[in-house]
Amino acid sequence: MSHKKRRYTSEMSEGQWRRLAWMLPKRKGAGRPVELDMRTVVDAVLYVLVTGCQWRNLPREYPNPQSVYYHYRKWCLDGTWQRLNRAMGYLERRRIGRFARPSAAIVDSQSVKVSDRGGATGYDGNKKIKGRKRHILVDTLGNLLDVVVSAANMTDRDGLKLLLTKVERQIAVRLLKIWADQSYQGDLEIYLHEQWGVALEIVSAQQGQTGFLVQPRRWVVERTFAWLGKYRRLSKDYERDSLTSEGFIYLASIRTMLKRLDY
User: Which residues of 118-140 are buried (b: 16+ CB within 10 A; e: fewer)?
Assistant: First the structure.
């Protein structure tokens, strides 16, 4: 009979955990010390992300589901997942010889259906989907810079404005160009130039094009959506709060970059 701890493919390696551990928030001040092993907590959240299971169906090898969700939710609220994603993006860009903060980015959105958990929803008349919309901004390598989850009836133009107010200030200041599709046409180009000093370039289909054709630059953000689509928890939006929805997207991006950094 084997007494070895069962391991799952969603769990982090030693190298991945070392890159992540020092950036997790530390408990400050007096009070009851944290008894949970933070590595098993993060591994448990990754298990939910990869398999798409319900919190209460976590395997017994992990801590109590309520305790795991408490830490996941807390790190969504205090911006921990956002900061970890930003740090992993810096490391990944430096690994391949790029400057830590990009000067160009690509933006796009994805409408997804929601479960019966409730929360803000809307109807995307273009995609004919009732649910929520994921607005993402990625660098030219496809690494996630930031994400905003909104009701599906929010326009792509308003989503980009929210992204730029949310993304790290140093990144927003350094950005010189953003590529987007035709849904971002309009007065947004003037707004971006006046408020952020960013040039917006619309990538449209070639004249006379029939059928599918890979569009310059935009294929990068489409590939990022494909990376996110590998995680079952993101197959639709199962969350009641948009902040927890964004947390899982940050975590999927973090895991994707950790696997490259640990290669």
Answer: ebbbbebeeeebebbbbbbbbbb
Reported confidence tier of residue 56, pLDDT bands at 50, 70, 90 = very high
> Residue 30: exposed, middle, or buried by beta-carbon count in 10 A (0-12, 13-18, 19+)?
exposed
CA-based nearest residue to 168, from 89, 259, 225: 89
Q: Which residues contact 183 (CB under 8 A, 6 or more apart)?
A: 109, 126, 155, 156, 157
**pLDDT (tens digit per residue) in 246-260:** 999 999 999 999 999
3-class DSSP state of 82 = helix
Q: How many CB atoms lie within 10 A of CB 175?
A: 23
Instruction: Look at residues 50, 59, 58, 45 and name the one whose alpha carbon lies nearest to residue 232.
Output: 50
DSSP 8-state secondary structure symbol assigned to residue 158: H
**Alpha-carbon separation of residue 47 from 12, 92, 171 (angstroms):** 10, 23, 31
Q: How far apart are the first and last CA of the chain?
A: 34
Q: Which helix H or strand E contains 233, and what residues bound it?
A: none
CB 144 within 8 A of CB 126: no
d(CA 162, CA 127): 21
Of 44, 13, 31, 63, nearest to 262 by C-alpha is 13
Q: Which two tokens stand for residue 40?
A: 């098993």
